Amino acid sequence: MNDSVSHWYNATAPSVPDPYGFSIVGEKRVEVKPGTFLYFTILQQANGDFLVRCDPSGLAAANLEYRERTIYAPQAQAMPAQVIWSIILEGVVVR
User: Fold this and answer.
1) CB 50 within 8 A of CB 23
2) Mapping DSSP to helix (H, G, I), strand (E, B) and coil, where does residue 31 land?
3) What is the pLDDT of residues 42-86, one digit of tens each?
4) According to DSSP H, which parts of 1-95 are helical?
5) CB 73 within 8 A of CB 94
6) Phi and psi dihedrals of 23, rounded to 5?
7) 31, 50 in Cβ contact below 8 A?
8) How many helices (H) and strands (E) would you count in the chain?
9) Which residues of 45-64 are buried (b: 16+ CB within 10 A; e: fewer)?
10) Per-domain residue ranges for the chain?
11) What is the structure's pLDDT at 5?
12) Which H or E run contains 68?
């Protein structure tokens, strides 16, 4: 994975694409509030855009919900990691 793209997540070997064309390309553990960490899975579409999913069991344990976020390929290359994660974490809300 190109460092300029994966600078905001921990890259892994891409998985085989699912029937919808998504491949798992990485993950990241993020502290969403003091003492509460969630695992996010980074999936990449064939067009280069990213879908960010969150571990449902971690959300349930913390009484949180997550609204999936798409990070478009140009954003992923141009934005600092801190900005990308602020966009992603806007999707984490209290139930």
Assistant:
1) no
2) strand
3) 999 999 999 999 999 999 999 999 999 999 999 999 999 999 999
4) 3-6, 56-61, 73-78, 81-89
5) no
6) -120, 135
7) no
8) 4, 7
9) beeebbebbbbeebbeebeb
10) 3-94
11) 66
12) none
